[in-house]
Design goal:
- It is a single chain.
- By secondary structure, the chain is of the alpha+beta class.
- The chain is built from 6 helices and 5 strands.
- Strand 4 (191-197) and strand 5 form a beta hairpin.
- Helix 2 (28-39) packs antiparallel against helix 3 and helix 4 (135-149) runs antiparallel to helix 5.
């Protein structure tokens, strides 16, 4: 693929560390601080700095899990109401089709770049534009993306990237999510966002300007 650069072992290890820290949801300034500690060459120091950051992330994740469980309970209640006998005539305030619960009901956006702040969502801009895959693996990955992109029903340009729209389906959503997660594992400069609702399945892909050629190679250029 055009535009890819091959880096030495040290650069690849540094890229892998950045990608790993990003997948843990660490903020950009935290990743930079960890890189500074890592440059000192003492693993124990890196671990000591990472421990409280990961513990904080666990707390936040547990909070998110609690929110999702509450949302799931709300959905179960709505499902139970809708499973009962429908009233005669048109819909009304008490028919069950409209929920008055204060629980935030609606589509849940899935972000494949787990972050804790708006600043952290921009960490992909700071990642080296390099891929850790070798020639054969890179060719296979390119084919996987091409097969998936061929299934898209629509595409449009967005700031720094492209939005692909796919037919709605759980199997296809899982395929899109799995491939995006794998790609980000080797190319931390890509930012993926998957939006899934009962009527829409969209993947947004962004990359720095220096990676525009790679973005076009993998996902095509809108007409």
């Amino acid at each position: 693929m055009s535009g890819y650069r091959v880096y030495g072992e040290d650069a690849v290890e540094r890229l892998a560390f950045i990608s790993s820290a990003k997948m843990l949801g660490l903020a950009l300034e935290e990743i930079r601080e960890l890189l500074d500690v890592r440059e000192e060459g003492v693993c124990a120091s890196v671990r000591a700095r990472m421990l409280p950051l990961v513990a904080d992330r666990i707390t936040q994740t547990d909070g998110r899990i609690a929110e999702l469980r509450a949302f799931s309970a709300h959905l179960a209640g709505v499902h139970a109401d809708l499973s009962g006998p429908a009233p005669a005539g048109a819909c009304g305030p008490d028919c069950g089709c409209t929920t008055s619960s204060t629980t935030a009901a609606g589509p849940v956006p899935i972000t494949l770049s787990p972050t804790r702040s708006e600043q952290a969502t921009e960490s992909w801009r700071e990642a080296p534009v390099a891929c850790t895959l070798g020639g054969a693996e890179l060719g296979m990955r390119t084919q996987q993306w091409q097969r998936l992109v061929d299934k898209a029903e629509g595409r449009e340009e967005i700031d720094d990237g492209i939005r692909l729209s796919f037919p709605v389906g759980a199997d296809l959503a899982g395929e899109v999510a799995a491939l995006a997660a794998a790609e980000q594992g080797c190319c931390a400069f890509f930012d993926f966002r998957l939006h899934l609702t009962p009527t829409a399945l969209q993947l947004e892909v962004r990359a720095p300007e220096s990676a525009a050629g790679m973005l076009a190679d993998l996902f095509g250029v809108p007409a």
